Amino acid sequence: MKLEKLFSPGKIGNVIIKNRIVRSSTFSRRATKDGQVSNQLIKFYNILAQGGTGLIITGNTTVERGYAVAPYSLCLYDDSFVSGQKKLVDAVHEYSDVKISAQLSHTGRQGSNPKYQPVAPSPIRDKMTKRMPRELTASDIEKLIKKFVEAGRRAYESGYDMVQYMSAHGYCLSNFLSPYSNQRSDEFGGNIQKRTKILVDIYNGLRDEIGKNFPIIVKLQTIDGVPGGLTLEEGVEIAKIAVETGYDAIEPSGGLGETLIGSKNQIPSKVIKSPEDENFFLQNAKELKKLTRDCPIILMGGIKNPLSAEKFLQENVADFISMSRPLIYEPDLPNRWKSGDLSPALCKSCNSCYMTMMTGPMHCVVKAKIEKKRLRKENLKR
Predict the structure, then answer these.
(1) Is residue 275 part of a domain?
(2) Is residue 14 part of a domain?
(3) Which of 67, 77, 165, 171 is the catalytic position?
(4) What CATH number does residue 40 fall under?
(5) Whole-angstrom Cα distance, residue 53 to residue 55?
(6) What pTM was computed for the model?
(7) Helix, strand, coil proportions of the chain in percent (round to 5)?
(8) Mean pLDDT in order along the chain per 10 residues (382 residues)
(9) Total domains in the fold of the chain
(10) Contact 234, 192 (CB under 8 A)
(11) What domain range includes position 159?
(12) Is 232 part of any domain?
C-alpha cells in the first residue's frame, strides 16, 4: 500500500502543508525559566523539522503570567516574547517548507503555581491538584478573552503560520465548555451556546486584530471522561459552533487531569498495549467529520501505523494525522515512512516521557536507555 494521501499536500485556511502529518502540541520543558525561547528549544524543533513533519504545533504557550502548565514553558503574555518567538519560527522555516503553529493556553482550574490561585468559570475543586479555583467574574472573563486575543496577535507578529487555541484536557478554555466545571448562569454558562461563547468571542476578537488570512485552529475537548462531564454528543454540538464561527481546523481530543487519577489507561495519555488500543479518538473524529464539511479534522490519539493513517485519510475520516509520543522517540518518523519503511512507530506509549516533563527536558526514557547500552558496548570494545 502506498502512502499517497499521507504524503500529499493539505490545506488549513490558506496555508498549504506539504503532507498530512502534524506534530501535536507537546510540552518539552526547554524554554528559559522566564518563558523565553532558548537555543535548546530551537534545536529541539529543528530536529523535528528535519524529520519531515508537515506542521509542528508548539508546546503550550501561556497567555497570562503565572498560568503556564509548568516551569520552563513558552510565554506570549506580553510583547517582550515576540523577538524570541520570531527566532524559533525562522529556524523552523529553514527546513523544506515546514509550517509551525503556536498553541496558546492557560491552566485555568488545573493551575499548580503556588504563587497564583487557579481560576475557573465556577469554584469546583480540582481533584488532581486538590486546589480550589477562584470563580471568574464576567469582567475577569472579558479580560481573559483579551489576553487570548493579544497573544494570538503576537503569534501572528512572530511569523507563525497559524495559531491553535488549547481548549482541551481540563485547561482554561475547556473549563468553560464542560458542565462539570462550568456551573454559571450568566452569558458564559448554562446551555451549550453560552458555554462556547468564550471560543466565539476569542475567534472574533483575533479576526478583528489580524484579518481573514491567518488560520485560527482549535484543540477541542469532545469528551471529559468524568461523571457529569462533557459528553461526545455535546462535544459534537460545540464543534458545530466552532465551525460556524469560522475556526479553520479542529483537533478533537478529550480527558482532563482528573481522568488520570488511579489509572494509566485513561485519556488523554492512554497507555497502548496492543493495536486495538490505538487510534482512541477515531470515533470522536468520525462524529465531527459528519458535520464539519470543509473544516479540516486533525485526528490524534495513539496513531502508530502508517497504513492505518493512510486508510483514515483515504476514507475521509480525517484530513490530517496528529502524533506526539511517536515523534518523541522518532523525530524522523515521517521521513522513515516516506522512504518506504512502513513498519509502525517504535514508540510503545509507555508514558515514561510524561514523567520526564516534571523534572527536566522532556525526552524518551526507552530511547535513552537503548542509547546508553549502545555506548556502553562501544566503550567495552575499545
Answers:
(1) yes
(2) yes
(3) 171
(4) 3.20.20.70
(5) 6
(6) 0.94
(7) 40, 15, 45
(8) 93 98 94 96 96 97 96 96 98 94 97 96 95 98 98 98 97 98 97 98 98 97 93 96 97 87 52 75 90 88 93 95 95 96 90 79 83 69 64
(9) 1
(10) yes
(11) 10-381
(12) yes
